[in-house]
Design brief:
By secondary structure, this protein is mainly α. 81% of the residues lie in helices and 0% in strands. The protein has helices at 2-19, 26-47, 50-86. It is elongated, with a radius of gyration of 21 Å. The termini are far apart.
């Protein structure tokens, strides 16, 4: 029964990773790939295949890094827009 659970995890991970090729939004693509590779990492760890573990771990870390960068850029843009809307007269010049 335990092996069936890991097989299901692998099929779900594989489906998510393949499905990510059809996603056009970069945030959703990276998030889907992160989830899919996490599931495949669990599966390959269970069946002890080092190539699968290492490759999925690398893809997982790369996507996590870019998701963090995306979140930081989004937070900076949000803070910049809050500053711009809180001081509307600061951006205009008077003659």
């Amino acid at each position: 029964m335990e092996n069936v659970v890991y097989d299901i995890i692998s099929w779900i991970g594989l489906t998510i990773c393949i499905g990510a090729f059809f996603i056009k939004d970069v945030l959703l693509l990276r998030l889907a790939t992160l989830i899919g590779c996490s599931l495949l990492f669990i599966y390959y760890s269970h069946i002890s295949i080092p190539q699968g573990v290492i490759s999925n771990l690398l893809v997982l870390l790369i996507n996590a890094y870019y998701l963090v960068r995306f979140a930081n850029a989004r937070r900076k843009a949000l803070n910049a827009s809050k500053v711009a809307t809180s001081t509307p007269g600061a951006l205009t010049t008077e003659n």
